[in-house]
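---------- Forwarded message ----------

FYI, see the Ribose 5-phosphate isomerase B record below. Original note from H. follows.
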Amino acid sequence: MARIAIASDHAALTLKAELATWLHDQGHDVADLGPHDAASVDYPDYGYRLAQAVGGGAADFGVALCGSGIGISIAVNRVAACRCALVSEPLSAALAREHNDANVIAMGARMIGSEMAKACLTAFLATAFGGDRHRRRVDKLGRPPA
């Protein structure tokens, strides 16, 4: 099973707690990076915390959540070692792994229900990177032109 870091902002606190428990029950080692109460917080703070855990090797994968999923995914992608994909259904979650070697999945708590979020996570975690022709493209993601 995988080491998974999960973080959110206040808008996704309930979904984060449900997914953390569900992932743990699936046998994963889950690190809940916060927040831990409903006080208003800034999603970049938690996106960066998550990205540092994944990029630094403390976690194999990350789950980033905010109201829309957009803001926190932008924050995570500021860390070069992370490839975060915003998804809302299982096919895009699987393709993010297979084609883009995504190591973080982002979802919007106001956009997706918990059952769909679980389906996305299931697809994401069950899919391996396809390698081959995709490797060349993924390598370019870490080397933007000057």
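H. also flagged this: The chain is about 45% helix and 15% strand.
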